[in-house]
Amino acid sequence: MNLFAALAALITVVALVAVLFPLWKSSRPIFLAALVTLGLGAIALYRLVGTPAAMDLQPQSATAEMPQDLDTAVKQLEDALARNPNEVEGWRLLGRTYLSMERYADAQAAFAKALKITPDDADVLVENAQARLYADPRKQLDAEGVALLERALTIAPQHQRARWFLGVAQRQQGKPAEAAKTWEPLLAGVDGNTATTLRAQINEARAEAGLPALAAPPVEAIDAATGPVLLRARVEIAPELKDKVGAQDTVFVFARQRGGPPMPVAAKRLTASELPASVALSDADSPMPTLKLSQVQEVELVARVSKAGDVMAKSGDLEASAIAVKAGDAGEVVLTIDRIVP
């Protein structure tokens, strides 16, 4: 049992730090789902190396077998799978661990073993495609990877990762209209913050294809997805500056504490093709867990078009003058982007 605990802890912690931490800021529901997945992988590892007999080992014997580092833990998992090659969850855990170690060819081989055992598992199909993507020097999906994703969607039409990676492949292949069409069904199944980011990606693809941007969702829909709305803003571009804005330029709408530090207490990211748009800000949009929008009495609302895609203002960016409001005000504030940052 101690051997299992050591293996699972080493592999899970490294995988979490290397692979999942960036999701904590961008999409916490996806982070938690991945955390559960790794937990299930640890259970599979127990099935491989943890047995009732192992639990009866003397403490000194168990301690002697405990791995001291990740490489040793991975070697023991590899040995366990050599003895029990039909453990699909063990191969998946090994594949994820290889990904976290950037051993992409090994990850591809591990996921291929899992796929051979369960050829109709949509998750395993997607993991195989993902490994192929990472293993490619150009970070592009080949025809076999695309076929794996298409097969996964035949089995599970709403599989989020399958749709995301297939859309990425279609956009890489110069098929932006198909990519947008593949991604659009995802909007109904993600939280409000993720939907905002995803909608921006979809609209970038639609702009590449010469298609109009998707209509902004009604504020009521945003309310249901993100909780109580504390601020509302209508963002538009002044007519005299419209010719200076590209359809794919990034637009940041944010609230910062009046008289406080410059970092925002709530923020949303759009693309210029979505403007004019109504934006709702809530505690779900707060980038800092220690300072929520609801904790601030008065804020400044700002809208900025960033040419570099960076929230920090740079010369040449376009922005609206900051407007001071109280968090919780029911009215909609109009932010007109009408000046160029010197």
UniProtKB/TrEMBL annotation:
Gene3D superfamilies: Tetratricopeptide repeat domain. The chain crosses the membrane at residues 30-49. Residues 232-338 form the Cytochrome c-type biogenesis protein H Ig-like domain. TPR repeats lie at residues 88-121. It holds the Pfam family Ig_CycH. Keywords: Cytochrome c-type biogenesis, Membrane, Repeat, TPR repeat, Transmembrane, Transmembrane helix. It comes from the Bacteria. Residues 68-191 form the Cytochrome c-type biogenesis protein H TPR domain. This is Cytochrome c-type biogenesis protein CcmH. It comes from Pseudoxanthomonas indica.
